[in-house]
């Protein structure tokens, strides 16, 4: 007997994974931007309040979603958008992968 997991169930699993790994980030801000950091001070994502883009750390989150769940760019973006709305009450934001410097919040 084969067991199929529905897309909705898979999304729930992915959201749960994100919350277990990144659901307790600390919000920090300065004059220009707002970021969310883990317990080691690593920036997981940040955004500029006047911009609708949320920049996600490639190594810490984007790559993990790609490798663990085999998601493509659009699936990761959609998942992260749902997650930040649900977990961090950030609606209307567009997730963007950030492969550059993450030390923007100083």
Strand content: 15-25%
Radius of gyration, whole Å: 14 Å
Q: In one word, what is the shape?
A: globular
**Helix percent band:** 40-55%
Would you tell me the overall average pLDDT? 87
Helix-strand pattern = HEEEEHHE
Tell me about the largest β-sheet. Answer: 5 strands, mixed
Give the total of beta strands: 5
Strand order of the largest sheet: 1-2-3-4-5
Structure, explained:
The chain has one domain. The mean pLDDT is 87. With 106 residues, it is an alpha+beta fold. The protein is built from three helices and five strands, in the order H-E-E-E-E-H-H-E. Strands 1-2-3-4-5 form a five-stranded mixed β-sheet. The longest helix has 16 residues.
Task: Give the key terms.
single chain, five-stranded mixed β-sheet, 3 helices
Topology:
Blueprint: H1 7-22, E1 26-29, E2 34-37, E3 43-47, E4 53-57, H2 58-69, H3 73-88, E5 94-98
Parallel strand pairs: 4-5
Antiparallel strand pairs: 1-2, 2-3, 3-4
Describe the structure concisely.
It contains three helices and five strands, in the order αββββααβ. The chain has helices at 7-22, 58-69, 73-88, and strands at 26-29, 34-37, 43-47, 53-57, 94-98. The model has no long low-confidence stretch (mean pLDDT 87).
């Amino acid at each position: 007997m084969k067991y199929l997991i529905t897309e909705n169930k898979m999304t729930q699993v992915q959201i749960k994974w994100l919350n277990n790994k990144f659901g307790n980030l600390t919000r920090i801000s300065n004059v220009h931007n707002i970021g969310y950091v883990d317990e080691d001070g690593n920036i997981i994502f940040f955004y500029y309040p006047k911009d609708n883009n949320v920049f996600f750390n490639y190594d810490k989150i984007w790559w993990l979603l790609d490798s663990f769940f085999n998601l493509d760019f659009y699936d990761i973006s959609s998942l992260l958008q749902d997650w930040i709305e649900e977990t961090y009450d950030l609606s209307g934001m567009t997730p963007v992968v950030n492969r550059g410097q993450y030390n923007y919040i100083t």
